[in-house]
Amino acid sequence: MRLALVAAGVLLACLAAALPSGCSRAGREAKPPERIVLIVIDTLRRDHVSAYGSAVATPHIDAIAEGGQRLTNAFSSFHQTTMSMASLFTGHTPSLDTGRPRERHDLTGHSWCGMLRFGTPDGRSDCIPASVPTLATRLGEAGYWTLGVVTNQLLYRPGGYERGFQRWIELAKPAPTAADANLVLRRALAGRPGDRLFLYLHYMDVHDYGRRSAPYASGVEIADQGVGHVMEILEREGLLEDSLVILTSDHGERLESERHFVEGHPGHNGSPSFDSLLRIPLLTRPPLFENADAFVRLDDLHRRILEVAGAAPGPEPDLDAGEVYVSEMLFQTYRRGRWKSYRDRTSGALHLVDLEADPGETRDVAAGHPEVAAEHRRRIEALEDELAARDAPELELSDADRARLNALGYVRMIRLKPGIPPAQSPEPTE
After folding, report:
1. How would you list the strands of the sheet with 197-203, edge to edge?
2. CA angle at residue 338 from 47 to 90, to 5 degrees?
3. Among positive and negative, which fits the CA dihedral 116, 166, 200, 152?
4. What whole-number distance in Å separates Cα of residue 39 and Cα of residue 32?
5. Is the previous residue joined to 370 through a cis bond, with omega within 30 degrees of 0?
6. What would the pLDDT profile of 111-164 be if each residue is shown by its tens digit?
7. 363-413 pLDDT, tens per residue?
8. Which of 356, 330, 392, 429 is nearest to 79 (CA)?
9. Which domains, and CATH codes, for the chain?
């Protein structure tokens, strides 16, 4: 299917020629896109998209970059949905750090957005605190009707992800598919108040490949079909012309065949966050950055979307350009350029890999590069201080949060209490 997605000429020129942080004035003088469509495919690895050279056929995903852009250096801000989507929605780097060396907050429904440092001292605020403006809030203020169709239970209310969406639909049925999401989306679009809109659509088909006892690639192919269908829906509704379409993922996945310098956890549980978890696809139409090889994190994407939309600007980056910092449960992972390090929270040991010579992260070379290891250690120590939530109390994982984790298969992350069923509902909720 050929997408009927033609942006206004002046917008195309701006987006194609703009500096990543320098098109603000020109972008605001130009006409912003009438629609912004953000599609997130949960757990989608970049190397399983055919536009990036994969043998897995993803023609509908690839089509988004036709006449647009395929970003080759895009990174998630965390190895799991709650943190990565909080980063995309707020423009901030998530963190579990406490301000005490190598200590971290426990993972609960209050902390798993990584935004505790912005919350109230009693820790009773939403996971994304009300003090932090969201992407949807800013776009709503800029005149867009904001619609979210969400299939990942960890993003469901009352986490704060819904803040700013004028219509927010949660598919609470067990294991909702892209087809389910598209059906609900089509109905929601029929009642839209106008054609100037921001649409956020989140698919879980790749994430749920293990629950179906199916190969990972099969989930990718199902999600790709969902993308093709949603493009058809938008085209029939006349919503693709003068639109900005963005497709990305919240994080990747570690496959059973992969071996690294330490054992690590399976799937996308991290500890540590290998690059297979952090390198994500990012395809846009029309182009969104000057350079398709630009280093782009999800928090950078937040700022760029607001800039192009002519909305109030996002926050200043928490990290320097080209940095990735992942404040994990068991490790603190840091990357800059060819070097990536992992500091063990328990022992304090720092491991180092050379991604240029060893992209599979199979060898710890910290002993051979002590100056790089020392530089990374200093930077990790600085970031764990700068991004810390010092006053937040430790709160236990609630039964509702345990149920959501259980329903999504995160049995390794928690010690489940017996008799807690998955949260279920036969109909989507708003």
Report:
1. 69-71, 282-285, 243-248, 35-41, 197-203, 145-150, 167-170
2. 70
3. positive
4. 19
5. no
6. 999 999 999 877 677 899 999 999 999 999 999 999 999 999 999 999 999 999
7. 999 999 999 999 999 999 999 999 999 988 777 778 777 777 777 666 554
8. 330
9. 9-323 (3.40.720.10)
